[in-house]
Design goal:
The protein has two domains: 134 residues, 3-Layer(aba) Sandwich (Rossmann fold), CATH 3.40.50; 157 residues, Rossmann fold. The chain contains twelve helices and nine strands. The protein has a five-stranded parallel β-sheet. Strands 2-1-3-4 form a four-stranded parallel β-sheet, sandwiched between helices.
């Protein structure tokens, strides 16, 4: 039976641990896996533009000895020119796996429903599991443990936070979240994450106070305040998020040596200052690199 990665809910704690262990091996010895995906191909169905997701999946698949085919909105127009079901059924005849980056999370779910090959969520409006797995892997890589570590996320209650919160809860990583009123994470996602946290012993704390979230944090994470598709609300959002910027004053509240994370692209001067994102404690580019290593492990897990 095929496996998909639609959201973090598709993985149990052991599954996450297995991906992390395989990532370490793939990253340490690239040459060992150069023929692992020989003769296999994935399709990248992207409704949104991308830097890290596209390049990391394409190059990652090539490094594994396979092929990757980019299918942008002009090629397919999934859900418009051609139904999601037809796209899934046809591409299943050509490909060994599908990576989809969509606006609507339901499109990913429908793809997985009708596809006979594994479907990986490269981003949707509700989830970004590959990003979250990479971020949590990077924290483990840098700090060596999740025990006694607190991750503070300061910003929008968006798809990145949804997946980050669930992953942290599953691995036992404490998380403090601060978002402006009206921009908190969705209640159903929080409820699911808290159930996972109860099992792992992790704590999830949510407020509207960025200073309280930053206080004593081992890692501080932020994302853009205006995501793709939200441009019409930019003025309203920028006003609401005033005071949630990750800057030198906020970093003083965190632990000494606190790591700085951002999934990129960053609007420098809005959600984060140059002095913070370019500081010695920033692991932003390590995150970006690790996208490829983690996704290679995901491809190996789902396609082999």
């Amino acid at each position: 039976m095929k496996e998909d990665l639609i959201s973090i809910q598709c993985l149990d704690t052991q599954g996450i641990s297995d991906i992390f262990s395989l990532t370490e091996k793939v990253k340490a010895d690239k040459a060992k896996y150069t023929d692992a995906m020989k003769g296999r191909s994935i399709g990248l169905i992207f409704q949104k533009p991308s830097n890290r997701t596209r390049v990391s999946f394409e190059i990652g698949m090539i490094q594994l000895g396979g092929n990757a085919l980019y299918l942008g909105p002009d090629e397919i127009d999934m859900g418009g020119r051609e139904s999601v079901k037809d796209v899934a059924c046809v591409l299943s005849r050509y490909l060994d796996g599908i990576v989809a980056r969509t606006y609507n999370h339901d499109d990913i779910k429908e793809l997985a429903l009708y596809a006979d090959v594994p479907v990986i969520n490269g981003l949707s409006d509700r989830a970004h599991p590959c990003q979250a797995l990479t971020d949590i892997f990077t924290i483990k890589e840098k700090l060596g443990t999740f025990k006694g570590i607190t991750l503070a996320y300061i910003g929008d209650g968006n798809n990145v936070l949804n997946s980050l919160m669930m992953t942290a809860a599953k691995v036992g990583l404490d998380m403090k979240i601060a978002s402006p009123k009206g921009y908190e994470p969705e209640e159903d996602i929080v409820d699911i994450a808290k159930k996972f946290a109860k099992e792992s012993g992790a704590k999830i704390w949510i407020s509207n106070d960025p200073n309280a979230a930053a206080k004593g944090a081992d890692v501080i994470y932020t994302d853009v305040w205006v995501s793709m598709g939200q441009e019409k609300d930019a003025k309203k959002r920028l006003k609401a998020f005033k005071g949630f910027q990750i800057n030198d004053n906020l970093m003083k509240l965190a632990k000494k040596g606190c790591l700085v994370m951002h999934c990129l692209p960053a609007n420098r001067g809005q959600e984060i200052t140059d002095s913070v994102i370019d500081s010695k404690n920033s692991v932003v580019y390590d995150q970006a690199e690790n996208r490829m290593h983690v996704q290679k492990a995901i491809l190996l897990k789902l396609l082999q």
